[in-house]
Amino acid sequence: KLLRQEGKLHRLRKARQKMSELFPLTEGPDIWLEFAQYSIGGMGAEGGISRVRSIFERALTAVGLHMTKGAALWEAYREFEIAILSTLQLERIHTLFRRQLAIPLLDMEGTYAEYSDWAEQGVPEMVMQHYKRAAQHLEKSRPYEEALLVSEPPKLAEYQGYIDYEMKEGDPARVQIIFERALAENCLVPDLWAKYTTYLDRQLKIKDLVLSCHERGVRNCPWTMGLWKSYLLALERHGAEHHIVSDVFEKALNAGFIQATDYVEIWQSYLDYLRRRVDFNKEGSRELEELRSAFSRCLDYLKQDVEERFSESGDLSCTIMQVWARIEALHCKNMQKARELWDSIMTKGNAKYANMWLEYYNLERSYGDAAHCRKALHRAVQCTTDYPEHVCEVLLTFERVEGSLEDWDVAVQKTESRLNRVNEQRVKAAEKEALIARQEEDRVEQRRKAKADKKAQKKSQKTNRTGDKRKAEDDVEDEWGEETEMSHKRHRGEDNFSPAVSEEQMETESGLFGRRQRKDSNSVFVSNLSFTMEEPEAKMKAVFNACGTVVEVRPVYTAKGAFRGYCYVQFEDELAAQEALKLDRVEVDARPMYVSPCVDKSKNPDSKIFKYNTSMEKHKIFISGLPYTYTKEQLEELCKEHGGIKAVRLVTNRAGKSKVIHNLYISAMYICTKLTVQHFLYRGKGRTQVSLLPRSLHRQSVPEAKTENGTTAKQQDGITDGQGTKSLSNEDFARMLLKK
């Protein structure tokens, strides 16, 4: 682009040529059509018509079977023949029609109708049969074509299904065209190229077609070692000249594989090719020397180039050296060279593996002599660390078959000595592992104890700060059944206030009682305030100034200085405190403010406590499953048609926002004066008929005791179980709830 902008056409031409060498352009119907139409311009030259026809035939061979775009190429070819029509060339047009109608292409009906008009003697029976078969194949392929039409590029999955279908049908030409169509949009998918080249290698076996496809594959995906390996095999299979195979191998080495083992595998493929070229009956042949030179070059390449790039050679088991040693032993009868190679293999960290020694032993057993077999096994007994028992057994078996009594005694002595050392090492290793395990267990136990101590310390500190949380005292149930609501909140750990506190707690939390004489009768406890309230002292003074003179507001904060959501307000006289109690449930910052008397429980142990309601609350229902953004006004509008509404209340969290149930819903509670629960039931008996008492406080219902005249006798001190035995009291319920 830069060269074109600068007008450097000569350099631009070279750059385009270089790009075309490195990055191939996938063939397609559009390109072939453009090329054929371009060639028509030269038909006036000598041999021009033959040249145009040749190009059209090449185009039809390449993409004439393209089901959606092939028809355009056939029509262009016919138009060319019609343009130069003569009496002698009329048969050419008939032939083109017949060839096209035998191929399943879109809009076959139009082509058939056009041919019917063209043929003066009607469509031949044979052409009709071919046309019908092609139309049937088109109908079978139509779902795959429609899937390609509606899918987004690169449509790999759709093409894979189409390819499998065509391969099952078994028409090589159609398999080839669908592969080409798929590669046009997925030219950088190595697996697709591998599948295509494998099909061509095993089915078509046409040299030019196979090698061309392999070359395109490695040009599109040069980083894929498997494609280069298949290319080398295809070149050898089709008898390519040696220098061509060598050139392809050199290109593969420069392709830039992504792992060291890829280089090992491509070297193995090339060495296999060179080995197959050698006639081992001819001593000192040029091919043998070339093979040995290639083995040496391979080892150097892996040690230098590959190891420098990947920090490993990729051939940890020295597979290439093993193959070289076996070739020297088997074909060249050169055991000296084979032993040198195996010595080198063992020095590369393989001497501790039993399988490596046994591989060398088998080589000596096949092509060497007994003396070298015995020597190899003795070395294996001394060096093997993974399976020493197996190597010892092989040595003893060998001496039973080959050795003398002296050889047997030496073998027994060496194997026993070696196995004793191995057992001692294993015992020491086991003891070390056991010690490490015990140390780890001790560390785990220490961590567990430290965690338990820390937890106990936190629990103790929490117990010492129990004054931070105060117990509610209101024993007269108001219209909201505050006892029941509070029990819900305490059970869930959501309440943040308790109006009855001890004097020591108030001294601890406020830190100000020592400076001013405190009177509980002149004070109120304010809770359920927003934790994010700014300047709570000034805010509360503004709220309670109308009740009387505010002497002091004492907000309670955490150790980090965060507002706890409650405070104490002290007035000048008791009358002002009584007026302040009337502000209970007044909304402050979109939250109902709770105002209650301030009572010192250390001096008034019988102060009022919660009494939990255990009966059905028929004038109240609980609604959940409302949208998150539902407001109080919308809820009133929803329910007012069923009766008079006394009050509606949305349950909010500490920040004053509606509570979320199951992430997307809020809960609401309201009281109706003339409303029965059944009005809101969708079907049968709903869950709103149960008490709002927490599940932990539910008990089996008890028949109400009756007096002799049939009136109900209410029990004030507790609940009986029907047999006169006193059950849990309200205070017991409270303790149970707080415990949970």
UniProtKB/TrEMBL annotation:
Matching Gene3D superfamilies: 3.30.70.330, Tetratricopeptide repeat domain (1.25.40.10)
Gene Ontology MF term list: RNA binding
Top-level division of the source organism's lineage: Eukaryota
State the protein's name: Spliceosome associated factor 3, U4/U6 recycling protein
Q: Where is the composition biased (Acidic residues)?
A: 474-484
What CDD domains does the record point to?
Answer: RRM1_SART3
> Biological process (GO) annotations?
mRNA processing; RNA splicing
Organism, as annotated: Astyanax mexicanus (Blind cave fish)
A GO CC annotation recorded here is:
nucleus
